[in-house]
Amino acid sequence: GAVVSQHPSWVICKSGTSVKIECRSLDFQATTMFWYRQFPKQSLMLMATSNEGSKATYEQGVEKDKFLINHASLTLSTLTVTSAHPEDSSFYICSGGATNEQFFGPGTRLTVL
Amino acid sequence: DAKTTQPPSMDCAEGRAANLPCNHSTISGNEYVYWYRQIHSQGPQYIIHGLKNNETNEMASLIITEDRKSSTLILPHATLRDTAVYYCIVLNTGGFKTIFGAGTRLFVKA
Fold first, then answer.
1. Interface with B, mutate which of A100, A108, A109 (most B CBs under 10 A)
2. Which residue of B has its CA nearest to A98?
3. Could you read off the pLDDT of A40-61 as tens digits, one per residue?
4. Chain B (53-82) residues lying within 8 Å, Cβ to Cβ, of chain A
5. Cα–Cα distance between B86 and B103 in angstroms, integer?
6. B98, A46: Cβ pair inside 8 Å?
7. Does B41 contact chain A (CB < 8 Å)?
8. How close are the terminal C-alpha atoms of chain B, in Å?
9. If you write DSSP's letter for every residue of B1-44 in order, what string do you get?
10. Whether residue B98 has pLDDT greater than 90
11. What is the DSSP code string of A16-58?
């Protein structure tokens, strides 16, 4: 199947700093990518839909000014957590669709101290 | 909200078949049934999907009832590595916008 990578796989940062997470589709082009957040022992929560060349569509309750999403090419989407706080500590997962399947990245674990 | 209902957890003996049920009574005609699983601290992994016919691949079988209101994922010979959370999702492949429910936590025991 197709491969989606994320970088970094884990990151620790100080409160108030910004963190950028990259999501790449390695062997397919993804017009649309999705960003999820997952807290311990909970399911994945969809944060936003990232569309190549246009603004992202955010789910209700997700702050668009805090979670900046850029989808500049068909193979790269980025999520920037701005002014991160400890409550933003979570597992962030991206995905991209191809043919009849959606492929998920391995996730990025963010810890904000 | 998720459109599926799954039991929160199930146990299975190693080597035996694991049968994971899913109810999706409000599924519409153009929606597929997808199954993913998530092993601890990893991204979800695609398992199988179907529209109305039963499907089988190297990982699992998917049995969909004739009225399409429920389905069962079958892992024919469960191993310890199959311990994971299994998500049943209904999805219109035109958009791929996937909403996850709580899933079923499968424990495969030796």
1. A100
2. B96
3. 999 999 999 998 888 899 999 9
4. none
5. 5
6. yes
7. yes
8. 36
9. --S-B--SEEEEETTS-EEEEEE-TT--TTPEEEEEEE-TTS--
10. no
11. T--EEEEEEESSS--SEEEEEEE-TTS--EEEEEEETTS--EE
